[in-house]
Design goal:
It is built from 20 helices and 15 strands. By secondary structure, it is of the alpha/beta class. α4 links the parallel β4 and β5.
């Protein structure tokens, strides 16, 4: 590995991110100078470095010799003058503009004239920092992702003042460190945070409004969208104070109320419950974990599957795999425990379910999979709404079932539906009867934001996809997701979400509508 044109790099601030960045640089063979404000902070920084590399040793990923070498490359100091020989200095102090400006003034004073100065800010404007220095052409952003030693993305931010050479040298350094640089302009949130935080905040608002529980939302996004972590686990990892800062910064630029921090987030931050780093945020760490709910003991259900098409086929195949008998003829539904309507459109589903309600036995659960109409509309048409739930499979061949109870669903019916779906091998989560259930309600606005970003020309499709896969561990990027899920489905879900919320940002991005009309994929 190589540092390109840099051999000695400074890092100012050795908190979680700064220490992670110092580790990445030292692992890449570079001489690192780590600066902190005082001896105590320096010792904490040393602790981060030893802890993180020690963890790798324990896992057998790093030898003790290699750990010693890495730590030996990092010189720790409380004196800015020790940065005098560095060709690049990366600032990673807390997100306060005044503080960062003071650090940059000091760097300007002690660093060589040709040194490039970088900020790891996630929420402040790089330009705002650059204009107060005497060398605005040499100021860039280098935005690492948490945990820095693991996540492969680094956003390299150029302002309108930055000279191309400084950007190229920093991007080459990032590549040399085995990470992928995405070079972009200076907009709040850059690419990844801009797309990530609208989604995280929406998840917090979903909790706030009682749409679903913390655990169900986290489970849904892992099992239903394949994300490495649910939104609440991730916010706790990032730090709720950082989440609040990023949201405030993005809101200040976007004036989109979806970025106005959710009250629950502010409440936790005010209470000092900042996530993992303080031992408690949305979750409690290190202590007793919450109990999980008991699964009811139910026999293997007989399942009625109504409708034709890919979804009905997928549901029938799922029942088969689980060893459930499947009935598809209207006349055979009498002994079914669960009847699932999986028609291709809401209207067909409604009449199939209404007909089935006439022959289904007492105690059978009637489920509608239609995402295009509220469950309650389908339920009322059956004449026995107390027995009806929504059962949504966000991926037809996936393992997640979202179960929605309406205001008319009888007591215990959603529990029974969840237990029956569990017997079909599905992971179940619960939510209220709202457009998009959990997964689609959270992912399509994010996908729409990505399409809008692409349409606005801020970043290209490859950069947007790289940002989310390499920065946040998503299995696939949003542009690829849109093509895979279908732009027509995206437009349909977004229209339903818009119709319910009248939230302007949820109306489909013009780029999506345009591609649907043209019958073309985004790529
Ligand atoms: N430091 C160093 N290494 C770490 C680590 C840490 N804090 N946490 C995990 N790792 C390493 C482990 O050592 C392991 O490496 P190995 O396979 O070589 O032993 C690897 O990462 C996987 O770790 P685990 O098996 O313990 O845990 P998971 O498989 O659950 O993965 C995760 C953990 C990599 C964090 C994964 O859950 C993930 O990708 N989550 C999403 C994280 C994300 O979205 N980050 C971006 C947040 S936004 C941001 O930072 C921007 C800022 O501006 C707010």
């Amino acid at each position: 590995m190589t540092g390109g044109s840099f051999s000695r790099v400074g890092v100012v601030g050795l908190g979680t991110m700064g220490a992670g960045i110092a580790e990445v640089l030292a692992r890449g063979g570079l001489a690192v100078v780590g600066i902190e404000v005082d001896q105590d902070a320096l010792e904490r920084g040393r602790g981060h470095l030893e802890g993180s590399t020690g963890r790798a040793v324990k896992r057998g990923r790093l030898s003790e010799d290699a750990q010693r070498e890495i730590l030996g490359r990092v010189a720790l100091s409380v004196d800015f003058a020790d940065l005098g020989d560095c060709g690049l200095v990366i600032e990673a102090v807390p997100e306060r503009l005044e503080l960062k400006r003071r650090v940059f003034a000091e760097l300007d004073r002690v660093c060589r004239d040709d040194a490039v100065l970088a900020t790891n800010t996630s929420s402040l404007s790089v330009t705002d920092i650059a204009v107060t220095t005497g060398r605005p052409t040499k100021i860039v952003g280098v935005h690492f992702f948490n945990p820095a030693p693991v996540m492969k993305l680094v956003e390299v931010i150029r302002t309108v003042l930055t000279e191309p050479e400084a950007v190229e040298r920093v991007a080459a350094l990032v590549t040399g460190l085995g990470k992928t640089p995405v070079t972009i302009g200076d907009r709040a949130g850059f690419v990844a945070n801009r797309l990530l935080f609208g989604y995280l905040n929406q998840a917090a608002n979903m909790l706030e409004s009682g749409h679903a529980t913390r655990d169900d939302i986290d489970t849904a996004m892992k099992a239903g969208a394949g994300l490495p972590m649910g939104p609440f686990t991730l916010m706790d990892l990032i730090g709720l104070d950082t989440c609040l800062e990023v949201l405030e910064a993005v809101y200040a630029e976007s004036r989109d109320r979806r970025h106005a921090p959710s009250p629950v987030l502010r409440e936790l931050v005010t209470a000092g419950l900042l996530g993992r780093k303080t031992g408690r945020g949305f979750y409690a760490y290190g202590g007793a974990r919450d109990e999980t709910v008991d699964e009811a003991d139910v026999p293997q259900p007989v399942v009625g599957v109504l409708g034709t098409g890919p979804l009905a086929d997928a549901v029938a195949a799922l029942c088969d795999r689980a060893g459930s008998r499947v009935r598809t003829a209207a006349a055979d539904l009498g002994d079914c425990d669960l009847i699932i309507e999986a028609a291709q459109d809401a209207e067909a589903g409604r009449s199939l379910l209404a007909a089935a309600a006439g022959t289904a036995r007492q105690g059978a659960v009637l489920a509608t999979t239609s995402a295009a109409a509220p469950v309650i509309e389908q339920a009322m048409a059956t004449g026995r709404p107390a027995d009806v739930v929504g059962l949504h499979l966000p991926e037809a061949d996936g393992t997640l079932a979202e179960i929605a109870a309406t205001v008319a669903t009888g007591p215990g019916v959603a529990d029974r539906a969840a237990a029956l779906a569990g017997r079909l091998g599905l992971t179940t989560v619960r939510c209220r009867d709202r457009a998009g259930y959990i997964v689609d309600a959270l992912r399509f606005p994010y996908l729409n934001d990505a399409a809008a970003m692409l349409g606005a020309g801020y970043a290209d499709a490859d950069s947007i996809d790289a940002a989310m896969t390499l920065g946040c561990g998503y299995p696939t990027g949003p542009i690829a997701d849109l093509d895979r899920l279908g732009l027509d489905r995206a437009v349909a879900v977004l229209r339903a979400l818009y119709a319910e919320s009248r939230e302007p940002a949820l109306s489909p991005a013009p780029l999506l509508e345009e591609h649907v009309t043209a019958g073309r994929a985004l790529r």
